[in-house]
Design goal:
The protein has 482 residues and is mainly β. 5% of the residues lie in helices and 52% in strands. The two termini are 25 Å apart.
Length: 482
């Protein structure tokens, strides 16, 4: 369904959010009136309403370092944009306890989203209402072991979200590009066994892809993890893409020429991701984390890898609780001097700055393939309600003259006196991104976030657009969550 007038939807959502007692029952079935979102709680059955809504005002200047004309040949793209986006997500969950050990449960929710104005990808004045979650599950506890199975659209994350977390897509015809309210997979079949600190999950997933770019992907695998304590975990995610029409670009020999496109290249991809996080011995306020992922696909002779290491320290005793994090992440690119394909496929990674994005502005141009990034983050909390965070990223290309998404940056240059098309960049340094964010918890259910970011083009970016300008932007959003 297309939303032709989004403001009434948002106004109604925020009005409900401001007065959540709409969910309370007058017949006393609410759980002692403690939670107005509990609609029914009696005889082992609980029914709860959920509501999430948000609005976001965004401004961008010199979008994509003004690449549109040089790389894509688009002369009418406006590199300066301002737009408003919003969404509302109502839902219901229930639990029905059966005896002492079993629980039958489920959830149902929908997302209505829209964009007013024209966003960064030249889409706007549009929106959609779509199903978000619609799952049923059964949980059984036998002594210290718990079994849990569920089927239907729902949210699911494997490991740290390096490969599998973002099950839904937003933006374009669906609207709400930056807010990204869709998280659930279009279909998920999950089977979980847990005992003590161990949890094993088998999954089959069908992503909720936008109709603008649906490549009919299906994947399956397992996630095995052991939590030694609340701050330490070691785990492994492994799986295979069972079906896909997603293509891969292949660097031309020597990086000279136009990249070839391999149709349906993702089909049959096998992947494994080992992850670990732990406090440092003798320093309980310090931590380290690491991820390593490998991919292969014998059908197209693909071997790729990626990894990340992080260290951090929290001054927990300080009044402002400052936290420092340093990290490095790398995702292999296709080597133009080999016949093998080395391009890493990031699959469905969580792409926000606190998770797996490579940069802030730059993450709208470069997906986690053929890029490396140093990251420094500093945060302080002057009050329990306020947090200020600054993030700095230095981003480089892993392989020169090799495709870098989005846009393969193919253009004509002079090689030995001859005009020749080349792919990718000829210098490693792509950009430096600075992102500053302020977060305010207005109440237990209402949150304000505002921030600004700049991206300074590096020598690699300037090898494509010589006079590439600084790309800057800012936003302010308000989220209600019940």
């Amino acid at each position: 369904m297309r939303i032709r007038s989004g403001f009434p939807v948002l106004a109604a959502a925020l009005a409900l959010a401001a007065s959540p007692t709409w969910a309370a029952q007058e017949d006393g079935q609410n759980a002692a009136g403690d939670d107005p979102m509990v609609l029914y709680d009696k005889d082992g059955t609980t029914l709860r309403a959920h509501l999430q809504a948000g609005g976001n005002l965004v401004a961008e200047h010199n979008l994509f370092w003004r690449f549109a004309e040089t790389v894509a040949g688009v002369t009418d793209f406006d590199p300066n944009a301002e737009w408003f986006e919003a969404y509302v997500k109502p839902g219901l969950t229930f639990e029905r306890r059966v005896g002492e050990r079993a629980t039958f449960y489920g959830g149902l929710s929908a997302v209505a989203s829209m964009t007013v104005g024209t966003d960064a990808f030249d889409a706007g004045d549009t929106g959609r209402a779509t199903l978000e979650e619609g799952y049923l599950g059964w949980r059984y506890k036998a002594d210290e072991t718990t079994f849990d199975v569920s089927v239907g659209p729902r949210v699911f994350k494997a490991g740290t979200g390096m490969l599998i977390e973002a099950g839904g897509s937003s933006g374009f015809s669906r609207g709400a590009l930056k807010l990204g309210p869709r998280k659930a997979w279009a279909f998920a079949a999950l089977g979980e066994v847990s005992r003590g600190g161990f949890k094993g999950t088998a999954f089959y997933l069908d992503p909720n892809e936008s109709p603008d770019n649906d490549s009919h992907n299906r994947l399956a695998g397992v996630d095995l993890r052991y939590d030694t304590n609340p701050n330490a975990v070691i785990g492994l995610t492994a799986g295979k893409v069972l079906e896909s029409e997603s293509p891969y670009p292949k660097a031309p020999p020597g990086g000279i020429g136009v990249p070839s496109i391999i149709p349906g290249a993702r089909d049959g991809l096998q992947f494994a991701n080992l992850y670990i996080r732990s406090p440092l011995r003798g320093a309980p306020n310090a931590f380290m984390a690491a991820d390593l992922a490998v991919e292969r696909n014998d059908r197209i002779d693909l071997r790729a890898w990626a990894g990340r290491v992080q260290i951090g320290y929290a001054f927990a005793e300080h009044r402002w609780k400052p936290t420092f994090t340093l990290g490095y992440q790398t995702f292999s690119g296709d080597d133009p001097d080999t016949p093998r394909l080395e391009r890493f496929d990031p699959l469905y990674y969580e792409g926000n700055p606190s998770a797996w994005s490579t940069g802030t502005k730059s993450s709208m141009v470069f997906i986690n393939s053929n890029v490396n990034s140093w990251q420094v983050a500093v945060s302080v909390a002057p009050t329990p309600q306020d947090t200020l965070t600054a993030r700095l990223h230095r981003i480089e290309a892993d392989q020169l003259r090799s495709p870098i998404q989005f846009g393969q940056a193919t253009r004509v240059t002079v090689q030995n006196g001859v005009n020749s098309p080349i792919t990718g960049v000829t210098r490693h340094h792509l950009s430096d991104d600075l992102y500053v964010e302020y977060f305010r918890a207005i109440s237990a259910n209402l949150y304000l976030t505002t921030g600004f970011s700049v991206s300074v083009p590096g020598a690699g970016t300037k090898s494509i657009v010589e006079d590439a300008p600084v790309w800057a932007g800012a936003y302010v959003n308000l989220i209600a969550n019940y």
